[in-house]
Predict the structure.
Amino acid sequence: MYDQISSNKIKSWGLIFVFMLIILAVGFVFSQYTRSPWIMPVAVIIAIAMTFSSYYYSDRIVLAMSQARPAEKPEYAHLINSVEGLALAAGLSVPKVYVIDDTAPNAFATGRDPEHGVICVTTGLAQKMNRVELEGVIAHEMSHIKNYDIRFATLVAVMVGIVALLSDWMLRSTYWGGRSRRRSSDDNNGAQLIWLILALVAAILAPLIAALMQAALSRQREFLADASGALLTRYPEGLASALEKIAADPEPLEAANKATAHLYIYNPLKDIGGTINNLFDTHPPVEERIRRLRTM
């Protein structure tokens, strides 16, 4: 368990480092092409501003989109008691507990930090899981809160936003005439052409690479939450068995959509399959998750 946790943390921050190098490379190409050193700072400021509101209000937005309601203790006493017990074991404030009236088993966590954490499960999950399976799922979601995965995802969203802005500006600048006409007469036409080609390539490929990086980071955080959740319960089989049940359940989760699917413990839109689709999938293959849990 400790090896898995350490490995996943290193891989996550390694991917963040690569992401930052990509942003710096795109920003450098754009600044050279336009001779505008202010481009990168402006892109960073705009991207942070764009994600500020979603960061602070993401829990309310997601719960409203999912049609979730607060779990009442008389009806969901065991669920709430499990959350309280695992929060105590994890040393966290007790997250708010919500339920979605849907028979498909699934769950997600949201909230910008452990003091504002929310765990939401479907009624199908509460009904179809036994005690250790339910605790395994809750521990996984509790680990997302403890590991600040919402904050981590926000950091990634800022970087994706920077790449998107820079790429859009590069495409627009090349379409409308490129760099400023005010050039010294001794400008090298060959160098201009090279920077133009690099700018076009970066503008086209950078958003694709950013999406791939975002998906890879999401998959690593899922592996991390699996390992951290197993450490919390000291029983990896509980989560492994729960993932098997969730993956095998044929019922679609009607409350889910593309905007919220990445939050769930298992992709509620179901796996489409194929190598290309797997590259952009925000969830690791469930078979690999189960295999790792059972080797702990």
Observations:
- The CA atoms of residues 82 and 135 lie 6 Å apart.
- Confidence is low (pLDDT under 50) at residues 178-186.
- The chain is about 65% helix and 5% strand.
